[in-house]
Amino acid sequence: MRFKDKVVLVMGGNSGIGRAASIDFGKEGAHVFITGRSRKTIDETVADIPGGRGFVADIGDIQSGNDVLAAIREAHGGIDVLFVNAGIGAFAPAPEVTPDQWDEVHNVNLRGCFFAIQKALPQMRDGGSIVITGSIGSIAAVPGNIMYAAAKAGLRAVARILAVELLPRRIRVNMVSPGPTDTPIITRTDGVTADQVQGMKDMMAGVVPMKRMGTSEEIARPVLFLASDEASFINGVDLYVDGGCLEL
Considering the entire predicted model, what is its pTM? Predict the structure, then answer.
């Protein structure tokens, strides 16, 4: 019950890592608010969180988070933990990347995440915690991953600078960077067939020293650790949760 009566907002909490973390926050006593783009998956997730509340919002649209922030302000006054997990995937070799593709990925994965944090900051309580989902792709040279990797690398810089700027308010900012993880984002990549998805999963599992992909739950647990008081002396870290990809 590390989060008993704490107010937790999970952006992108309706699927994959965000869903797993949202449910775990709820199990540990938090008042959980989640956002996502799918009403169906939001409702399915909230059903597994006693007292949880879900709001449709697109992190790529700066104004779309107004409703959840207003609801938190009215019900609880402020936010203790902010987990920024929303993101999209896109893969293409560098010569085939178009400006529209680049802008779509960065609008969500970098620009959208930064401005979502900026907008939530006035409601963050002093002494709170922000955790951001990164990716080992931000430092790993994976062919075809240039758009996603560049956005996550930018987000890594955002996290480190926020960690310093928010020190006067005692708000810690950390990042969890998963390695190959079996989440729905893989199947949502535009233009990728079922056979290609399986091929991608097999390829990603093959590069992990443990010879398997991680699960959403295995990434969620370090998120909760960094958000908790157990990590009170950890700030500005980029924690790789990757089955040994970058460590071995």
Answer: 0.92
